[in-house]
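Quick one, tokens below:
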């Protein structure tokens, strides 16, 4: 079976490409020359600072960022699975 032919692997390739594109976009936000191009279009998520349990304390946060890298990663992923 060729890579990317089953429906499950197609979705995983697309999601992986979008995640890698987002990480590249966040990295490129650190440079003055590319900061305006790769700024975050939207940022959504939640932040749970502290959940106090009997045996310890737990906290977590999850944020989704969309930028130009996300779009380029999605297009690249679609090109790969076509």
């Amino acid at each position: 079976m060729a890579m990317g032919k089953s429906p499950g692997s197609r979705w995983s390739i697309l999601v992986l490409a979008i995640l890698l594109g987002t990480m590249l976009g966040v990295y490129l936000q650190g440079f003055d020359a590319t900061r305006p191009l790769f700024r975050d279009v939207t940022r959504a998520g939640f932040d749970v600072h502290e959940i106090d349990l009997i045996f310890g304390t737990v906290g977590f946060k999850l944020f989704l960022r969309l930028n130009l890298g996300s779009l380029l990663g999605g297009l690249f992923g679609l090109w790969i699975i076509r």
